[in-house]
Amino acid sequence: MRVTCPHCNAAYKIDDARVTPAGVKVRCPRCHQSFPVRRPDEEGAAVPLPGGAAAAAGVPLPAPAAPPPAAATGIPLPPPPGTGSIPLPPPDPAPGGEDSPFAFGPAPEAPSPFALGPAQEPEPAFTGASGARAPVELPGPAAADDAPLGFGEVDFPEPPAAPPPGATPERFDAGPAPVDDADIVVDEPGEPDPFVAAASEPAFDAAPAGGPAFGGPSGAARAGASEELEMLFGEGARPADAAAGDGYRVRRRSGKVFGPFTEAQIAEMLAKGELLGNEDVSADGATFEALSAVPAFAAELERLAAQEAAHAPPPAAARPPGAQPFGDRMAAAKVVEGEREPLARRLAKPLAAGLAVAAVLAVGLGAGLTGHGWFFTGHLRRGDSKVAVQKLAGARAALARGDHASERSALDLAAQAVAADAGSAEAAALHAMAVAALERRHAAPRPALDQARRAAEALERDDPGSLPALEARLAVALATTPGAGTAAAETALAAALAKARPDPQAFALLGEAALARGDAVKAAAAFQRLGGLEQGPRAPMGLARAALLRGKPEEARSVLEKVAAADAAYLPARLELAALAEAAGDVDGARTQLAPVLADAAQPRLAPLERARARMVEAALLDRSAATAADAEKALLAALEADPRLAAARAALVRQRLRRGDAAGAVAASDPVAAEAASDPALAAARVRALALAGRALDAARLADQALGVAPGTPALLVAKAVALSAAGKPQEAAAAYAEALARDAGAVEPRVALGRLALARGDLPAAREALAQAVEKGPRDPAAHAALGELRAAEGDAAGAEAAFRAALALDAEHAAAVLGLARLAQARGDVAGARAGLVRALALEPRSAEAQLALGTLEWSARDLEKADAALAAAVDLQPRNAAALTRLGAVKLERGDAEAAVKLLGAATSEAPGAADAQLWFGRALLARGETPAALVRLRKAVDLSPGAPEPRLQLGQALERSGALQEAIEAYQAAAAAAPALPDPHERTALLYTANGRCDLALAPLARAIELAPRATRLRVELGECQGRLGKHAEAVRTLRAAQRADPAAAQVLYPLAREVHQAEGVRAALPLYERAVRDDPKNAMPHYFLGYAYKERGQRERAVQAFRAFLALKPDAPERRDIEAEIEDLGGAR
Questions:
Q1: What is the DSSP letter of 1051?
Q2: Which residues on adjacent β-strands are paired with residue 289?
Q3: Contact between residue 229 and residue 334 where contact means Cβ atoms under 8 Å apart
Q4: Per-residue confidence (pLDDT) for residue 971, from 0 to 100
Q5: What region holds the Zinc finger/thioredoxin putative domain (predicted)?
Q6: Residue 730: CA atoms inside 13 Å, Cβ hemisphere, count?
Q7: Is the domain defined by 950-1018 classed in CATH 3.40.640.10?
Q8: SS3 for 420-471, per residue?
Q9: What is residue 116's predicted lDDT score, i.e. its pLDDT?
Q10: Beta carbons of 982 and 963 less than 8 angstroms apart
């Protein structure tokens, strides 16, 4: 039977006859661990030997001993055996808490007396006729009443103990299951196994005198003794050893002692070959002598020698199972030893077989690195080449058609060719090229792309440098990473084509790769070669695209028109013609070409990219009118739905929203692709503009730098970066970026327009004139260039030239909002408020989210003193552009004039933060602070406004008022005088100086500035009123009357003249002459309380008591907090008004 060590998995073979019904314990020679072994059909229980077998064996069955107390630890032993079982000696009981003496532990350091020693001492050899070593036949076994057997070959001098109570055979390990033959096996005695002889034999050592224990391999075993499984037969408890006179103990040459055995047993073991005759025996267990020296055994040895010489039995005679009643007791050592077979001979056959297998593997695996396949299986897998050829021909013809439906058919045919002939390199390459053609239209199935990639790798590995391998490699590169990375693959394929038969598919592939890299010259050359090899639209379509790449749209249109004329149903040509017509401004032509492409019946024939591009052209046409701007946005959203991968559609949506002033919406449109925006220059440029106009200048600048790192020097990115810098208040850096963009693209119009506007903003009219003249020259059909030129003409004071430029822009684009806005501003400048308002309303209809139009409309309403409408329009401008400093400033000024100083301070503070160098913002911020009573802070802002605008009088006027309020009268006068010097024709500084003198009782000093102010503004009634009042305070009532009557004649409807005139007439001519003037002042200026005051006294003097009471009461109603209130109430009481 076969067993396996459960500790190290080493496999062994044990003769079934050597496994008793009760089982045996064996020790593994590899790991030196012991384990039980039972017969396979008797696992799990101790089975008693049959009665006949027990009788034949002559095994005495002793009565069981009294069981000792159970040990606290140790290996559980089976219960006392019944009839026919071989008892195992129980272990001595161990103290509580100590390890059992039967526990498997590390090998003892001292060599065990039971270990087999090294074969240093030669054993007697019994040879047969052939000279080989043969077993010695000894006499048969003794009677059945011989001394009981010990524990295998191990004998313990102490009395054995009974097994612990409750121990059952099931508590033994079930033993290893049978396995295949292993290298180390235990054979029956016979011809020695050469492999067993090479191993050392572990000994099952006996414990020292203190008690029996299991040990590891002995010193003799470690020294190189022969190694076999050592069997420890699972015997039950037996009675104490027989006395010395009852048998002999046997000591092997290794030093191990067995027994005691009777003379008949020893003689039988000699006859069976289990003893060699060179052992020692002892009758008393202490003194040993040679076996041959004992007379009882000497005769037997001589008889065996004579018998061997006469018969010479075969050296490897096998014993039948069950024929060795005592063999299991001596199983720890082989009785027959054979010579070891040489190592070379033992390894020759396995080595030869291994070399043969290695050679087959090397050749087969080596073939796998070639086109033959692993173990040349490629030749066994070749399919139907005839079918593959037919499919490939159909695929090539379909690719030549050059549209989505044909390319999809080509992919299917190529896939069928690959399936028909899996080893065809041509089929794999054509399949990859069909995938690349579809992927250019964003229509390649992902599994097909993966298959093409794997096929390209296989071709590159199996047949590098071949034309199919190079084609597949370039096709996969074009489908996955088009651009500069394909240059090396293009060069390799072109070199291979120069030596091979021209392949139309290869030239088409080279042309597409060159277009993807932006090399129009190589692309045109490749498509020219393609046109000479095949008939169809693919070559001319490629040539048209190359012409567009070179900037020659007319040449491209000519080629496309020929293709469309040859096949009116060829949709790709129609789509390209529509795009060209739209770009050229041919709206009707674009719609005509686009109509068949947008038809419902055409949609299944279009690839995702083509459907999306058609929607983009439709959106561009719709976006030309403000009325259809919403439809244009819907068309762009449909384009994104048709092909989410088309970044150009998303960039177009961003630009469309920016044109409508929806910067926040533009940012939202680009948010889904924000992470990869930097890798696409067009998309990055659009998003940078959106971020900048939405007030996220820092994010815009960061994205611009990232995109320029990916595509350095891209003009569109440079312009977008300049827009972001301009929005961030960095005009000089913006101008540098625009200049760099012009250096990269000398024909660009937008950078020139932007540079002209920047120069115009800083007042550099010559620079603006030069830049805008070049812009109009480079872009004569660009309405933005003409509109910017109109702004320049307006700044130069050339209203007629400005109007002409604006109308030229409108001739190119009837709905150009900037031109409409410019005309409205011209109308406002010439005082045509109604015309200006109508123009601004139209500009807002064209571009509802135009912050500039809202700002202009709010400014117009402010100048018209319609503060409510001005507030609404300016608030809308601020909502659209929260960081627009001009809008914040004007809205703050309107809030201040409407009396909301708190809101004005907040808005103007934000304006000064956005534009610290804006003088208007500082000026109005100072005025708002002054209105809120924060005079020191107001002085700081007003002084800064003066510094920012050295030639402007308004900041000095406001500074003078603040100084006047702070008590610095002399500084205030100096500020007014500086304002008058800055604007000699302005009456306001003279008026403010006169008012300062008048307020401080120096009317004599006020007369001259007032007279100068009247000279500068003769129609200003208030100035004459102020002069008349000042003359009256000086006692010059007659002069005052003349002055005031002159003011009345200049403005008869001026009600504010009546009261001061009545006062001066009262002083000069008396109350009778003044009474009509007081009465008229009450009627024409009802909110003025003072005429009622003097009229009450006049009525009192004339005795008109009731009328006097009415006048006094009207005075108190209009001026309830008048300081004269008590006096007036007393007058009313005196006049009887209290009743």
A1: -
A2: 281
A3: no
A4: 93
A5: 1-36
A6: 15
A7: no
A8: HCCCCHHHHHHHHHHHHHHHHCCCCCHHHHHHHHHHHHHHHHHCCCCHHHHH
A9: 36
A10: no
Encoding tokens for residue 899? 């009396």
pLDDT of residue 686: 95
In this prediction, residue 257 carries a pLDDT of: 83
Predicted pLDDT of residue 246: 63
Report field, pTM of the whole predicted structure over 0.70: no
**pLDDT at position 260, please?**
84
Amino acid 887: pLDDT: 94
Written as one string, the DSSP assignment of 595-616 is HHHHSGGGGGGS-HHHHHHHHH
Residue 476 clears pLDDT 90, i.e. is over it: yes
How far, in Å, are 984, 986, 1023, 1046, 1057 from residue 1014 at the CA level?
Answer: 13, 11, 6, 12, 15
- Report the C-alpha gap between 284 and 865 in whole angstroms: 143
- Where exactly are the structural domains of the chain? 1-337, 348-376, 568-660, 950-1018
Record the tokens describing residue 835, joined without a space: 């015309």
What distances in angstroms separate CA 1126 from CA 1104, 1113, 1115, 1120, 1133, one per listed residue?
A: 21, 12, 12, 11, 11
Amino acid at 59: V
Q: Whole-number mean pLDDT of the chain?
A: 79
Per the document, the length of the chain is: 1139
467-480 and 446-462 are packed helices; what angle lies between their axes, rounded to 10 degrees?
A: 140
In angstroms, the Cα distances linking 151 to 88, 290, 549 are 6, 24, 101
pLDDT value at position 196?
37
Which of helix, strand or coil describes residue 36? Answer: strand
| Residue 376, pLDDT score | 52
Residues 741/742/745/751 CA torsion (nearest 10 deg)? 80
DSSP-derived letter for residue 1137 is T
| Closest by Cα among 713, 754, 753, 708 to 731 | 754
Residue 257 β-bridge partners: 251
Q: Which residue has the tokens 């800083």?
A: 762
Q: 447 — phi, psi (to 5°)?
A: -60, -40
Q: For residue 493, give the nearest of 483, 479, 503, 481 by alpha carbon.
A: 503
- The two tokens of residue 291 are 């076996």
The secondary element (H helix, E strand) that includes residue 282 is strand 280-282
Higher pLDDT, 118 or 898: 898
**Nearest to 315, CA basis, from 273, 255, 266:** 273
DSSP states along 653-722: HHHHHHHTT-HHHHHHHHGGGTTTGGG-HHHHHHHHHHHHHTT-HHHHHHHHHHHHHHSTT-HHHHHHHH
How confident is the model at residue 185, as a pLDDT? Answer: 39
Residue 642 CA: distances (Å) to CA of 433, 434, 649, 669 = 24, 22, 10, 16
User: Would the pLDDT of 5 be above 90?
Assistant: no
